[in-house]
Design brief:
The structure holds two protein chains of two kinds. Chain A is built from eleven helices and two strands. Chain A is mainly alpha-helical. Classes of the chains: A mainly alpha, B alpha/beta.
């Protein structure tokens, strides 16, 4: 947390590891062990035991513990890059001193700046997750290998138009593809087991989302008809493969095929959910716009806004499996938890934000320390 | 014998069995009569008239039975073990038993069992191994012929009790007769007992007096993968005994993965694996590490609730506070969610060790119904510590949320602190957690960390208890078990040498081991008590301080969980109530006061539960302390340790108790750093510690004795009592030999006190 973090003073003794004791070769225990033929540095245990190769380090030295005082998730690092303060002005200089090439330095600088802007956006508005959708090469969709993608949230009014445009478009394609999917599902329902079809549906839904995203992003004016046909082809192929794998995997699962009626119902439910989600999203956009234009009122609004946002997030993930594959804007923010959004965190959050503004905002600090950015 | 004769005849089953049994009976029995074909009608008459008395088991030949034979016996109308007709439900249970995965491999198991002395058996949870394998062994060992028992050890008391009950039902016998259990402070076995479920620690205690475990023909170690301290020692012992006693059969049962390690350890014993009845679990990772794992887990639970089809959720968190906090947050959010959308109901249940059993039971409640028919599904969400990882099975769990942390107790032999800290789990443990999702149908496990973190940051296996604990008690037990050479004792994972040294050193100071490392009389006596050596020594020497009754109570209270209850919503009142019992000089004395008040309330005939509730005391823990006290008292009586008290009116009543504490805990003393400082320094190890805020001692002295030294958020000493340094020099002169101390405040203080005592004695001498 840097300067804004909670301070934790800890008084340490002169010898917190008690090396005085461990170095003392005159203790009763050490003498006794030596008398039985133990030498320092040796493991205890049977001589030439066949399982000795499976001993762990803990059989040699006691287990070391780490005092964990925060709720940082597994693998998350404190100061994962989003908190770089002030120092980045010197990075170029330091890099030059270390003999880095000019172009490397430039790319690094750009990276840092991208990181900063992402961190800013993330802090200000939270981030929307997107899912990989493959590439459109010629008239074929090509799946890509897993990689991360950055799509900053459109924030200002200018981008709002395009966003709503995108939503509108995807709406129509969505509806169409829904219908198609329904029919397709009924076609293939005979051999599907319960779980398979469920998974498939999810896959399909995800795919839809992907395509939606792509559309919104590129505004590609491709022939919808043709694209659909292509996609259908591909999906069928993929589904077949998928199915094969699945059946191999859990062949002994009960083969209870869903009835068509049930499926239709599910579809309806999905559609309802989809609609709700879109509504939420639009509302959220509105909120965001308002928020960005009027930062004073943000605090008052944010209670309900946060709530809304969370809700919409939940709903959105209704369309895809939560957490699955949905990558998050990188920029080294290092987390996929957006800022705490619960009401109970609000006051604390506000406080932290204030503190951050004062202390951790690189721009402000640069000003305070009168550091001129190299680029500027 | 029975085999050859049995195969000659091809009559009906019934007849075949009874005749053979008759013959075998004769051969075995008291009379020398040979089977006489001319008298066949007599026998037949006999058999027809009383079909029960001669056991159909007699046709079996020990260590040469088949699954088919056993199945036939199980199908009989009368119970072969009791000769009583089977009850109604027996056949129902039998049918479900035969559906268990392990049943298919009964014959395979028997073949391997016959051919090898040691057998490693791997069966996932749900395979039925804990209940079935001992019964398979029972039908093969035929304990009624040899008079030797079959033991099956469990790491937990509750498991031993409940499994014994279950197996008694399955065999259609009464618990405590043919099938019994034995746990610390409770023994439910009888002279007829053939199959005995017990805790691993209990078997170890038995082995102290019977180094060859000669009462048993087969020993089954269940849940060996949990690697409790007692299991590890038991395995090492059995490895030795197996060499001496070739007739002893050993089965090591494990639920997981690491079976190869067991195999190599047990002279490459053969391995039998039975698939569990589990469904595939889909694993999800987060793409990036989480900033706040509690927040992330709350959010994931809500997302699952919003988006996933029916199925209950299990969330693993680390401790009571965190769990209660997450419960509150999820409840609030779900309320919001229900208000603003058509989300289904979600019931949240916490689950952790210190939760009262009644509340623990609630996790087995059914998930709530949807608000309207066909509406979104209702579900329950259980937020648990890692007790739900192995020890408890909750049906209906489909989603598991795993943040990747747990709280672990780890002992540091250098500073002698026991830390209880949140730390990353192991890979094996993560897999166990995920496996919980696939018990009833295919499930999903959401791991709140990246795949990279799973592969790179998690250790492969959880450290077994023996690497994480203070071994003073273990070493004492090993000495009592006749283990001479502790250095080369063949443990599966030998502890760090420093841990062993510290244990030996402590035992030496306590005078349980002499300077050659041999068990002393005191040590031998101390090992009779199922207590830590310090507590045992304190108890044994308490008559010298005229307060053995009181020390007995204090010891019992220290061996049960905290008796003072402090619920989150009534902390202040709880603290006020605790102050009623407070003794200004120490928490030990406060415990004693509370116990005396409890006994007083009990005797006055008031409702004890109500009384405890009003006074924020745990009736359950007080009752179990009472039980422990009775047991310890019995041990004291058998070893002729006097039970005496200083009269309460005597001004030395409490002083005596405080002094008696030092007889066992002189190594757990801390001195204040400065005159007004809040930090203390532990004697000899020089660790800086604070007195735990739960203390009632308002004005601590410069010297305190403490019961435990823990590292939670800081280094704390818990349960402290004021003492005078003069007592230290008097009660533990060896440990407090000033010359052995390093230069420092403590040495200066001790020197000054020695001087003072000398002067005082000189003055006395002059008079």
């Amino acid at each position: 947390m840097g300067l804004a973090g909670a301070k934790n003073k800890r008084k340490l003794g002169l010898d917190p590891n008690n090396t005085k004791w461990s170095r003392n070769t005159d203790t009763f225990g050490q003498k006794l062990l030596r008398a039985h033929g133990w030498e320092p540095g040796q493991y205890l245990g049977a001589k030439d035991a066949p399982h000795a190769e499976r001993y762990t380090e803990a059989s040699n030295k006691h287990i070391h513990v780490v005092l964990k005082e925060d709720n940082l998730g597994l693998g998350a690092k404190r100061n994962a890059g989003d908190e770089c303060v002030g120092l980045d002005a010197f990075q170029t200089l330091l890099g030059r001193l270390n003999g880095k090439a000019e172009d490397v330095l430039e790319s690094e600088q750009k990276e840092r700046e991208a990181m900063k802007i992402n961190a800013y956006l993330h802090r200000k508005l939270g981030t929307i997750r997107f899912v990989r959708g493959g590439f459109l090469v010629g008239d074929e969709m090509k799946p890509t290998k897993e990689s991360v993608e950055t799509i900053p949230t459109p924030s200002a009014g200018a981008s709002k138009d395009s966003a709503s445009e995108g939503t509108g478009k995807s709406e129509s394609t969505d509806r169409k593809s829904k219908k198609r999917k329904a029919s397709e599902d009924t076609d293939s329902s005979d051999s599907d087991s319960d779980i398979d079809s469920e998974k498939e549906a999810k896959k399909a839904r995800k795919k839809e989302k992907k395509s939606k995203k792509r559309r919104a992003e590129t505004d590609a004016e491709t022939d919808a008809e043709a694209a659909r046909a292509r996609k259908k082809e591909k999906k069928e192929k993929k589904e077949k493969k998928e199915k094969k794998r699945k059946t191999e995997e859990d062949g002994d699962d009960v083969d209870s095929s869903l009835s068509d009626a049930k499926k239709a119902k599910k579809e309806r439910k999905e559609r309802r959910k989809e609609r709700r989600e879109r509504k939420e999203k639009r509302r959220e956009k509105g909120w965001k716009e308002k928020a960005s234009s009027d930062s004073e009122s943000e605090a008052d609004d944010s209670i309900s806004r946060e709530k809304k946002r969370r809700k919409s997030k939940g709903d959105k993930s209704a369309a895809s499996t939560p957490l699955e594959c949905s990558t998050f804007t990188p920029g080294g923010s290092g987390t996929s938890t957006p800022v705490p959004t619960s009401i109970r965190f609000l006051s604390r959050q506000k406080y932290i934000a204030q503190k951050r503004m004062a202390f951790a905002d690189p721009a402000a600090l640069n000003e305070i320390f009168m550091i001129k950015s190299v680029q500027a | 014998m029975s085999d050859t004769k049995g195969s000659k005849r091809s009559n009906t089953e019934e007849e075949d069995g009874s005749q053979d049994s008759k013959r075998l009976k004769m051969a075995n029995g008291k009379t020398d009569e040979k089977y006489n074909p001319y008298l066949a009608h007599h026998y037949d008459d006999n058999d027809n008239s009383q079909n029960g008395f001669q056991s159909p088991l007699d046709q079996l030949q020990r260590h040469n039975t088949t699954a088919q034979q056993a199945a036939k016996l199980e199908d009989l109308d009368a119970n072969p073990w009791t000769s009583q007709p089977h009850s109604q439900r027996y056949f129902g249970i039998l049918k479900s038993r035969r559906d268990l995965p392990v049943h298919k491999q009964r014959q395979e198991f028997l073949d391997m069992y016959h051919s090898s002395q040691i057998l490693v058996f791997v069966g996932e949870t749900g395979s039925g191994k804990t209940t079935q394998i001992p019964q398979y062994v029972l039908y093969d060992e035929l304990p009624h012929q040899t008079g030797k028992l079959i033991a099956c050890t469990q790491p937990r008391r509750v498991a031993a009790m409940s499994v014994a009950q279950r197996v008694a039902n399955e065999l259609d016998v009464e618990l405590g007769q043919e099938v019994g259990y034995s746990i610390r402070f409770e023994n439910r076995t009888g002279p007829k007992t053939m199959l005995k479920y017990m805790t691993d620690g209990q078997l170890l205690r038995e082995a102290m007096h019977d180094h060859d475990m000669s009462r048993y023909s087969t020993i089954i170690i269940d849940e060996a993968h949990e690697r409790t301290l007692a299991t590890d020692i038991l395995m090492a012992l059995l490895k030795q005994i197996a060499e001496r006693r070739k007739d002893l059969k050993i089965i090591v049962m494990s639920a997981t993965l690491d079976a190869q390690k067991f195999q190599t350890y047990f002279f490459n014993a053969p391995l039998l694996a039975v698939p569990g009845r589990t469904f595939p679990v889909e694993i999800f990772y987060t793409p990036e590490p989480e900033r706040d794992y509690v927040e992330a887990s709350v959010r994931t639970v809500l997302q699952i609730h919003a988006a996933e089809p029916e199925g209950d959720i299990l969330l693993f968190l680390t401790g009571e506070e965190e769990i209660e906090d997450a419960c509150r947050r999820i409840n609030l959010e779900v309320d919001d969610m229900i208000r603003e959308s058509d989300a289904g109901p979600l019931k949240v249940y916490p689950l952790y060790g210190t939760l009262p059993p009644a509340q623990q039971q609630r996790i087995f409640d059914k998930a709530p119904e949807p608000f309207r028919k066909g509406g979104r599904p209702g579900r329950k969400c259980i937020i648990a510590t890692n007790i739900a990882e192995t020890s408890l099975t909750i049906d209906g769990i489909v989603y598991v949320v795993d943040p990747g942390f747990s709280k672990q107790k780890i002992y540091n032999p250098r500073s002698r602190v026991e830390s209880l800290l949140v730390s990353p789990i192991s890979k094996a443990s993560a897999q166990q957690r995920a496996g919980r999702a696939g018990r009833t149908r295919p499930g999903k496990c959401f791991r709140l960390y990246t795949e990279k973190a799973f592969k790179g940051e998690l250790i492969p296996q959880t450290y077994p208890e023996i690497l994480r604990s203070n071994l003073a008690n273990t070493v004492l037990e090993l000495k009592k078990l006749g283990v001479e050479d502790l250095v080369h004792f063949d443990l599966m994972d030998p502890p760090a040498p420093e841990t062993m040294m510290r244990a030996l050193e402590e035992l030496n100071y306590l005078a349980c081991l002499d300077d050659d490392g041999e068990l002393t009389k005191l040590g031998s006596l101390a090992s009779e008590f199922p207590l830590d050596p310090a507590l045992a020594v304190m108890l044994i020497s308490s008559p010298e301080f005229y307060c053995s009754n009181e020390m007995l109570s204090i010891t019992s209270l220290l061996s049960v969980p905290q008796i003072f209850v402090r619920p989150n919503n009534a902390r202040k009142r709880a603290d006020e109530m605790k102050m009623q019992f407070a003794h200004p000089d120490g928490d030990h004395l406060t415990l004693l006061n509370a116990y005396h008040a409890f006994k007083g309330a009990e005797q006055s005939g008031s409702d004890v539960k109500q009384w405890c509730h009003e006074h924020f005391l745990s009736a359950r823990h007080l009752a179990s302390a009472d039980n422990v006290r009775t047991q310890l008292k019995r041990i004291m009586e058998t070893h002729d340790i006097e039970l005496i008290s200083t009269p309460f009116q005597d001004k030395n009543y409490y002083t005596n108790i405080r002094r008696a504490l030092l007889a066992g805990f002189f190594m757990q003393v801390a001195m204040r750093e400065g005159s007004n400082s809040k930090t203390y320094k532990t004697v000899k190890d020089d660790q800086l510690v604070m007195i735990h805020p739960s203390t009632v001692v308002s004005s601590p002295y410069d010297w305190v004795v403490y019961n435990e030294f823990v590292l939670t958020t800081k280094q704390y000493v818990r349960t402290v009592t004021n003492i005078r340094p003069e007592w230290l020099l008097e009660i533990a002169p060896v440990y407090y030999d000033v010359d052995t101390f390093e230069k420092g405040e403590i040495k200066t203080a001790l020197t000054r006190i020695t001087e003072k005592i000398r002067r005082r004695q000189a003055i006395k001498g002059d008079r």
